[in-house]
Specification:
It comes from Fagus sylvatica (Beechnut). Residues 21-256 form the Sieve element occlusion N-terminal domain. Residues 465-537, 542-619 form the Sieve element occlusion C-terminal domain. Pfam families: SEO_C, SEO_N. The chain is α/β, with parallel strands linked by helices. It folds into three domains: 32-256, no CATH class; 289-456, 3-Layer(aba) Sandwich (Glutaredoxin); 472-613, Glutaredoxin. The protein is built from 26 helices and eleven strands. It has helices at 22-30, 42-65, 87-98, 110-121, 127-150, 156-164, 173-178, 180-206, 218-239, 249-254, 268-282, 287-302, 306-314, 355-368, 387-400, 414-423, 447-453, 462-471, 474-479, 486-491, 503-517, 520-524, 539-557, 565-574, 597-605, 607-610, and strands at 323-325, 332-334, 343-349, 374-380, 406-408, 431-435, 441-443, 495-501, 529-534, 581-587, 590-596. The chain has a seven-stranded mixed beta sheet, with helices on one face. It has a four-stranded mixed beta sheet with strand order 9-8-10-11, sandwiched between helices.
Length: 619
Amino acid sequence: MASRKASASSYQPNKSFFTLSDQEILTKIYATHVCDNEKLDVESLLIIAENILNRATLAFDNALLGTQETIEQWEEKTPKASFSPPLCTLKLISYEMNCKAGPSDENHEIAQETTLSILEKLSSYSWDAKAVLTLASFALEYGEFYVLAQIQPSDQLVNSVRNLKRAPALLKHATLQKHQQAFVDLNKVIRATLEVIKCIFELEKLSNYDTKVLNHIEVDVYWAIITIVASTTQLSCIFSDEDKKQELNHYAVKLNVHPPQTQEPDSNLQRTKRWTTIMMKYFGLMPEETEAYRKLVKLFQTSMEITEVLTGLIDPTNKMQPLNDWSTKELLHVEIDVLKTKNVLLFISDLDISDADISILRLISDKIGKEDHYKIVWIPFMEEWTKDQKDKFENSQSNMLWYTGYIARYNLKKASCRFIKEQWHFKGKPLLVVLNSQGQVECENAMHMIRVYGVESFPFTRGAEETLLKEKCWIEFVIIHIKKEIPRWIKEKKYIFLYGGKEKWIQKFTEKATLVQNDILLKEKGISIELVAVEKEKLNVFESFWTSIESMFISKAQWKTETDDVGQEIQKLFSYKNESAWTVFTKGSSVLVSVSGKTVLKALEDFDTWKENLHENGL
């Protein structure tokens, strides 16, 4: 450990440091976080750290206070047998906490600096992992001291190790008694920090339901880590038999170890516990359901096997044959293993499936008919089943069997229902989730893609959609079915006015646009304009058009990338749905302008003043 000069005075930290607002802290720590892609079994590491700290703090308290408490008051958990602790990372954190200057008037912000340095080194870990890794590093240090203290002073090897650790006080019980109160207070802070981090771990799980929970985690992680940093300094002072100590009172108040003397905001422990309770109640979760959901989310993030994720989703208990196979005339119950190495299209719906959606399934089924590496599985989604619904399901299978190879049997677990609603945004309308043979989600809902592009978008991936949009302009997919002449107009690169809004405005626009369409000058210059009105009175056309726009918008949005030019054009047009007047002007399938209809109407009304400026064969 770094040497520390003895002094009779205690270091008093800068009080303003403890009055930082949450926003000020967030500003400091956001810059240290890059991503959450570093893999770590946080739960196993937390179990090990908790077991060490519970045993070691209890043993030291018994020795110093003369108490006889036993470890049986805690229920010790066991980490996974396959868990391999990240020792190098723990040592790196230990270096940051131990090899800095000790408490002094000149270095009162060292805890802040060390905390930010640790956060930078853990930039690719999740927020709960950052806190648990720091706690585990401290537990390793504290546990080493505990082990050294248990061995007889006559063991010269141990004495040498103690000296290297700069902890000669471990040899002298009387010296430890001298620092009794400081040690007892330190253990209280350690236990409170452990409680905060356990709450942080639970909140991180709940963030799978609502990412807003993370807003309450990050600040608590900061205070937990900075408290551990200060505790490490205090631990060193005690075992090095130094008179100067690290003042922990302000950290204790933050963590609710000692009640504050004045009215202050909630401590981190109070707030974190309260948020854990609130979020559990808000989502109506039992602990076992929370854990099952978390495991399912993790499974879809890490699994490389399609049958593994389907088992977790459809039949996590592995107690039944979960699929009905209608590929033969006789109904068979089969295992999920029949889908091993297959790409799976999960059709998720309630029991009321429209003819339009059946038509989509028919198209898909025809497309993949002879491609053995693609299979459709229907998952009937019901959170609670009545007898009538079960009867309806049994009857529905006969209608679905021609279009789906397999049908998942009912009784999805609550965690699976929540996963489908939260992760895949199921709200009653059918989903078609595309999974590759490794169980990875290729498309959260291909129904939108198919409604726009048809089975040409097979295999319903982002790459397939992008290829189609390179071959054809997006507007072509939207308008091609409105009039049978449109494909020819597009091929001939004619000008097309696509417009809609209130009935009176449409009539007025049609009148003015028709005058321009039939103008002699345009005919002489070989300029041809066609008119396509999207009228609410023509309900089928109106609904088909806006459904296509909405589906294209959602299909583009689900890739969670920055909106490109095409995405912006689609979004802009979609925003016109409830407008009183809108217009899109194209040449063939190339969109020239998409604006408020009133602007274009004004231009048409002034056509006689600017038509002489028309170019030959073009506007």
